[in-house]
């Protein structure tokens, strides 16, 4: 029983990590129709921001708050400079963002000298509940994920900016005719998705350690999550991330870990075969 | 450079492995572009017969770069020392570097350059086993050149003209495991491992030693190298009442594994984590508190307190002030130093003859009075060397880690070939 609760907690924590990472990717993919292959590197930049704070002995909490702001800026600039040229051609967008990711990753690798860096949690230790120990930082990640998820949904579903973003996605011509600046909205959406990636990076790096490849390890699974859940909705990628994360953490219990890795993909692809539009084809926003 | 750009274009959005290869190629092309055509370190003086040409083939770029750069620095340091002392029988050593870029495919071409264009007399280098396997044929068979492999590894490399100067599984396990079982009383072992050749073969040997000493391997499990989630493993460690984890998970999987193991209270409840590739550099990859009490067994530690090792550290620090590539056992620095010195001794023994047959015959009975961690001695006919092995435990003082050496086994036999 005790072991089961701990395992459930660990799986929940990993699902939260996956959801955090997929959220930004999903928002950009669903709202803008762009598959951002540089998403993993945005996560890396968020993690690197936290590392800079640690290296300069600044408070880590500040780093976690700063990371999404830095990434929002990076996202905004990139969208205005590069990404906006790709809207007409999604394949080009994939290749273009992949190139951007590669450049970011190798710059960071150079800055780190190829080394790995251990980054401490802003709050470490364990939380004792009913005789069971839970990692404080994983608890923080779970809570943050829930808050961020709800806040993102509120932003897109309940605010007028969110309405405009959705409008601009649905029918850009009509939106422009109504006096909405779609260019600005796209930049805003991309910046928002990037900020989510930055936050994810800063939150997860204490768990995994910083290396240039921290983002790419999650990228493939993140894309799988979006495919699985369904592009074009907010809930789809979140659900997809939960399934992929849960399987990745849980399957090694039942089968050999080397088999678990491909099995996640096989199961996910089987689901995609049954529901080609993803599990949630039509969302509430 | 153009070749690398092409391989990069082909890798667009194919799969993870190709993407990683592309990234390695870009690192090679971008960050160290100048190295693509090799690098030469000439001695300050000349000799009528010309210099002795030593080739270093190591990973200056890519994921293994931290180890490769340490290797290259150690080679420079050792060769400079020899040249400052008048070279080998009056002839200076000229050092040639080729980047193997953590990629065996790139490596084969670059190593060929060392042999065919530079016409080196000996090649030292290679860190991963995959790299050694890829470059040994171009060096030893097709290249007809002597090859010295410096890294601690899984053993079973018995190729003629290929000398190994790093520790073998026997050297790393024969001291450590009996201590874990007999002195510390740990009986139930888990072997979480990265899924490649070194952990597979090391575990095979370690399992024998564990069982011979009355211990039990409760589970042995292999993970994809980039696995990031280990709750199932940690759960099995808890369920199996494991009291000693013999770890061969490597970065990037290492950090999340160590964290989850630590969070599970494994060490707090008396469990011991041991890991034989863990040197001082690796300690920086993981938060200090998770490393407390870690047991390892290597041929050298910076904490060793004899005059030769002190001088070595001081000399290396003076040549490379503030380097991020320290002189540690895990990055093959010790094997590289030994390799250069063994070669020096062998050429002295042949009276300056550089023909492979003669140098190899002299190497075969080579002896080093002094080296990192103490003397070393080739086991005749075995292409591996005896060396001192040290068991050390990691202590944490004020959030800083350091090793405390707790035992020394003199001149341990490699038990290879």
Provide a brief overview of the structure.
The complex is a heterodimer of chains A (285) and B (417). Chain A is mainly α and 285 residues long.
List keywords for this structure.
heterodimer, A: 285 residues, mainly alpha, 74% helix, B: 417 residues, alpha/beta, Rossmann fold, six-stranded mixed beta sheet, 15 helices, 15 strands
Q: Which band does the percent of strand residues of chain A land in? A: under 5%
Briefly note the structural class of the backbone of chain A.
mainly alpha
> Which chains have the largest interface?
A-B, 48 and 53 residues
Please state the overall shape of chain B, judged from the principal axes of the Cα atoms: elongated
Output the CATH class name of the largest domain in chain B.
Alpha Beta
SSE string of chain B: HHEEHEHEHEEHHEHEHEHEHHEHHHEEEE
What integer value in Å does the Rg of chain A equal? Answer: 19 Å
Number of helices of chain A: 11
Mean pLDDT of chain B: 88
Main sheet attributes: strand count, strand direction, barrel closure of chain A: 2 strands, antiparallel
Determine the structural class of chain B based on helices, strands and strand pairing.
alpha/beta
Order of strands across the main sheet of chain B: 1-3-2-4-5-6
What spatial order of strands do you see in the largest sheet of chain A?
1-2
What helical percentage do the residues of chain A reach?
Answer: over 70%
């Amino acid at each position: 029983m005790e072991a089961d609760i701990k395992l459930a907690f660990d799986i929940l924590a990993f699902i939260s990590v996956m959801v955090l990472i997929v959220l930004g990717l999903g928002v950009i993919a669903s709202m803008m129709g762009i598959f951002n292959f540089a998403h993993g590197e945005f996560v890396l930049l968020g993690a690197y921001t936290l590392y800079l704070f640690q290296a300069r002995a600044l408070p880590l909490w500040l780093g976690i708050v700063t990371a999404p702001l830095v990434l929002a800026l990076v996202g905004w600039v990139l969208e205005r400079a590069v990404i906006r040229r790709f809207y007409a051609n999604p394949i080009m967008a994939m290749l273009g963002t992949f190139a951007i990711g590669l450049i970011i990753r190798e710059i960071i690798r150079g800055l780190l000298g190829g080394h790995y860096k251990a980054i401490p949690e802003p709050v470490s230790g364990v939380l004792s509940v009913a005789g069971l120990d839970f990692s404080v930082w994983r608890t923080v990640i779970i809570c943050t994920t829930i808050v961020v998820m709800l806040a993102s949904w509120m932003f897109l579903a309940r605010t007028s900016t969110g309405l405009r973003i959705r409008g601009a996605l649905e029918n850009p011509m009509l939106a422009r005719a109504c006096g909405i600046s779609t260019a600005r909205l796209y930049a805003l959406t991309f910046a928002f998705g990037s900020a989510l990636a930055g936050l994810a990076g800063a939150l997860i790096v204490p768990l995994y350690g910083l290396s240039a490849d921290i983002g790419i390890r999650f990228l493939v699974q993140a894309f799988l999550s979006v495919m699985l859940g369904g592009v074009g909705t907010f809930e789809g990628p979140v659900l997809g991330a939960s399934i992929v994360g849960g399987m990745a953490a849980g399957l090694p219990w039942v089968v050999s870990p080397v088999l678990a890795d491909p099995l996640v993909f096989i199961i996910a692809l089987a689901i995609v075969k049954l529901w080609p539009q993803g599990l949630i084809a039509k969302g509430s926003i | 450079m153009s070749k690398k750009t092409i391989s990069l274009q082909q890798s667009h959005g194919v799969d993870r492995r190709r993407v990683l290869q592309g990234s390695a190629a870009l690192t090679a092309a971008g960050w160290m572009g100048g190295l693509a055509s090799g690098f030469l370190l000439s001695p300050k003086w000349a000799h009528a017969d010309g210099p002795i040409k030593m080739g270093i083939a190591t990973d200056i770029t890519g994921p293994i770069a931290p180890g490769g750069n340490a290797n290259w620095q150690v080679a420079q340091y050792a060769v400079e020392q020899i040249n400052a002392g008048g070279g080998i029988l009056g002839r200076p050593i000229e050092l040639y570097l080729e980047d193997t870029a953590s990629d065996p495919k790139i490596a084969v071409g670059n190593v060929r350059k060392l042999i065919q264009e530079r016409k080196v007399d000996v090649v030292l280098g290679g860190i991963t086993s995959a790299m050694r396997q890829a470059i040994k044929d171009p060096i030893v068979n097709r290249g007809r050149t002597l090859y010295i492999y410096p890294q601690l590894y899984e053993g079973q490399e018995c190729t003629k003209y290929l000398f190994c100067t790093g520790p073998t599984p026997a050297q790393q396990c024969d001291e450590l495991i009996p201590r874990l079982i007999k002195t510390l009383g740990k009986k139930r072992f888990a072997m979480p491992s990265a899924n490649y050749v070194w952990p597979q073969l090391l575990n095979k040997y370690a399992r024998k030693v564990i069982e011979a000493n009355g211990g039990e391997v409760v589970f042995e499990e292999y993970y994809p190298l980039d696995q990031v989630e280990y709750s199932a493993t940690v759960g099995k460690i808890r369920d199996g009442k494991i009291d000693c984890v013999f770890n061969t998970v490597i970065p990037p999987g290492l950090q999340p594994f160590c964290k989850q193991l630590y969070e599970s209270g494994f060490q707090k409840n008396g469990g011991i984590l041991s890991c034989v590739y863990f040197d001082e550099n690796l300690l920086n990859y993981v938060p200090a508190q998770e490393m407390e009490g870690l047991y390892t067994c290597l041929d050298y530690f910076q904490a060793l307190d004899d005059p030769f090792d002190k001088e070595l550290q001081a000399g290396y620090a003076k040549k490379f002030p503030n380097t991020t590539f320290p002189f540690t056992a895990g990055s093959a620095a010790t094997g590289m130093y030994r390799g250069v010195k063994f070669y020096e001794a062998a050429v002295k023994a042949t009276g300056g003859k550089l023909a492979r047959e003669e140098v190899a015959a002299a190497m075969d009975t080579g002896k080093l009075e002094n080296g990192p961690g103490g003397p070393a001695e080739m086991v005749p006919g075995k292409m591996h060397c005896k060396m001192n092995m040290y068991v050390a435990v990691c202590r944490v003082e004020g959030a800083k880690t350091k090793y405390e050496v707790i035992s020394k086994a003199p001149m341990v036999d490699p038990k290879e070939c």
